[in-house]
Amino acid sequence: MHSGNGVCDTYYDNLMEVCQMSLFDLNGRVAIITGGNGGIGLGMALGLANSGASIAIVGRNSEKNKTASKKLEATGVGVIAIEKDVTNDSAGTEVATEVHDKFGRIDILINNAGSNIRKRPEDLPLEEFKWVQDTNLTSAFVFSQAMYPYFKKAGAGKIINIGSMYSLFGGPVSTAYSVSKGGMVQMTKSMAAAWGNDKIQVNAVLPGWIDTELTRTAREQIDGLYEKQLARIPDGRWGTPEDHAGIAVFLSSNASNYITGTAIPVDGGFSRSG
């Protein structure tokens, strides 16, 4: 509300700007991002780093970890890269301990690690089905469970689970992936219900068709995939990892303190187009 007085109007405008900035300020906070060494995970990590958060990325590929770390360090925040296979049962606890020892706190967890095996259900071996679940879904459960004691002790926490358009739709060669991403949304809702009293917000982000290493492989395997999906995207383009920086900052910040159990598409309108 403006007073009609120029000096007062300037004061209130400046105050509003400060309040808005503080809502999204992540200075002093520490975020763990699984699969944070590339693609959507790195796009989110850079968004958090540019908002002041210290970053721990978790990935199996040491070279990708090093490259990602350099990009993150250029923002001026604290960075640690942990070489870890997220499918190991002890990975969550080990990462939590290492990050807490390094930074003294943990505030944010982004469960982004993921993979896919494209086969029709009748051709999909059980071990491959299980591997996709372990990578995409079970690891998210293990890491969330490992972070819970730190969040509870701190009195707050943020978890962002990365789903997919396949959280909403099925696909003839995406059975394992669709199951894992559908499960991610249901796990998000259940954790939000369980941990709300602990001031832990749990939300999911559902990326659309994004230009990443994973989807570039899909485009090599499926003729016409790029053009077919592009025709359905109202925004007129495939997304980029950087398109996920804003939603990551929002769901990690005080601006989202009363938002939990949601699944938010970041898809250029794909899921709303017939």
Task: Offer a few descriptive terms.
single chain; 274 residues; alpha/beta; Rossmann fold; seven-stranded parallel sheet; 7 strands
Radius of gyration: 19 Å
Q: Output the CATH class name.
A: Alpha Beta
Number of helices: 9
Largest sheet: 7 strands, parallel
Tell me, briefly, the overall form: globular
Mean pLDDT: 92
Beta-strand content estimate: 5-15%
Q: What is the multimeric organization of the chains shown?
A: single chain
What fold name goes in the CATH topology slot? Rossmann fold
CATH superfamily: NAD(P)-binding Rossmann-like Domain
Number of strands: 7
List the secondary-structure elements in sequence, H or E.
Answer: HEHEHEHEHEHEHHHE
Describe this structure in words.
- This protein has 274 residues and is α/β, with parallel strands linked by helices.
- The chain has one domain: NAD(P)-binding Rossmann-like Domain (Rossmann fold, 3-Layer(aba) Sandwich).
- It is 47% helix and 14% strand.
- It is built from nine helices and seven strands, in the order H-E-H-E-H-E-H-E-H-E-H-E-H-H-H-E.
- It has a seven-stranded parallel sheet, with helices on both faces.
- Helix 2 crosses helix 9 (245-252) and helix 4 runs parallel beside helix 5.
- The longest helix is centred in the middle third of the chain and has 29 residues, at 126-154.
- The protein starts with 5 loop residues before the first helix and ends in an 8-residue tail after the last strand.
